[in-house]
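Input structure tokens:
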């Protein structure tokens, strides 16, 4: 089966990892949000690309889900001593990724090519594609004004109240090479349990991606369980945007793009409402969507493919 997964952040990385470890494994392409990318110390940092890659390579930091396992923090501690910016923690091994990526970007290579080369070195089988080679930084509109994404997310700890989002330059951006072909050839599109507002919407906003997906079988996994986000500010964002956070809100968020949604068994009471809604009723599977262990990732990924297969066979 040809599968394309849309991912950003830790939840997306975990499910992408589960999909890649299935046996038999699908032919997998992971399209990753780069709206979180930013520059620090002159380095180009791509947190979601790195989180996805480190997880696929089995070398992620288990406590946080981002950054490298067995990390050392010598450079970070020295920067702290010098009074430099320490709000964004960059480990020594992780720094090597940013240094080499920045060097290659500086000599004119596209992010997609650099990512593909890194993936080869790290022994990653799936194709990992940044949503675009063009910069599309996410700006968060808040009660404290417009903030660059990492300033909102890490420096201010998602404290400001959100009023909207702007994906800067998105209208002129192009999907990275290989994205439209991968979608075209896909039997199933999986929207991973990533933050709909700031991990998935930036991908969908790149011209050509959403319309290509509309032709396809698309399943999402809700990142909201029992009204709370497994990780990060998704539920807080829904609330601040005047929407009660729930798996139903996630289903509505993706509106006519979806064919089905997987929600957590804690949200069983929402199944009927999503299945029977007047506009665009969806197929729903209720299961344990919380990925605590690597085995959970693979089990959930298997259930996602079974769900897709079931819909393919019904048509
Ligand atoms: N998230 C934090 O909350 N604090 C950090 O210091 C931090 C450092 C960091 C370094 C490298 C990296 O790839 C990711 C890092 N993240 C950090 C996570 C990241 O900024 C966010 O989780 C994503 O951008 C949201 O998906």
């Amino acid at each position: 089966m040809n599968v394309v997964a849309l991912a950003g952040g830790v939840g997306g990385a975990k499910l992408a990892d589960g999909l890649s470890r299935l046996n038999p494994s699908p032919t997998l392409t992971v399209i990753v949000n780069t709206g979180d990318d930013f520059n620090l110390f002159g380095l180009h940092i791509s947190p979601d690309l790195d989180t996805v890659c480190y997880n696929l390579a089995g070398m992620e930091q288990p406590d946080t889900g981002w950054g490298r396992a067995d990390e050392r923090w010598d450079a970070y501690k020295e920067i702290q001593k010098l009074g430099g910016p320490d709000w964004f923690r960059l480990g020594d091994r992780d720094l090597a990724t940013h240094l080499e990526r920045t060097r290659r970007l500086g000599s004119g290579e596209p992010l997609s090519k650099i990512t593909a080369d890194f993936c080869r070195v790290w022994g990653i089988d799936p194709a990992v594609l940044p949503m675009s080679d063009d910069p599309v930084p996410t700006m968060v509109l808040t009660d404290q004004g417009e903030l660059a994404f990492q300033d909102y997310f890490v420096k201010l700890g998602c404290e400001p109240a959100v009023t909207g989002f702007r994906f800067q330059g998105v209208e002129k951006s192009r999907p990275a090479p290989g994205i439209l072909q991968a979608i075209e050839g896909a039997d199933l599109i999986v929207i991973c349990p990533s933050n709909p507002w700031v991990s998935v919407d930036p991908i969908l906003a790149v011209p050509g991606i959403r319309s290509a997906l509309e032709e396809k079988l698309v399943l999402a996994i809700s990142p909201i369980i029992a009204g709370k986000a497994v990780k990060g500010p998704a539920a807080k964002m829904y609330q601040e945007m005047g929407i009660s956070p729930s798996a139903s809100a996630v289903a509505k968020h993706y509106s006519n793009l979806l064919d089905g949604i997987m929600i957590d068994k804690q949200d069983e009471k929402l199944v009927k409402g999503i299945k029977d809604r007047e506009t665009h009723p969806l197929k729903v599977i209720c299961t344990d969507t919380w990925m605590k262990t690597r085995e959970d990732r693979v089990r959930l990924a298997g259930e996602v493919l079974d769900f897709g297969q079931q819909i393919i066979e019904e048509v």
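The CA atoms of residues 10 and 110 lie 24 Å apart. Residues 8-9, 36, 47-48, 50-51, 66-67, 88-90, 94, 150, 153-154, 199 surround FO1 (CB under 6 Å).
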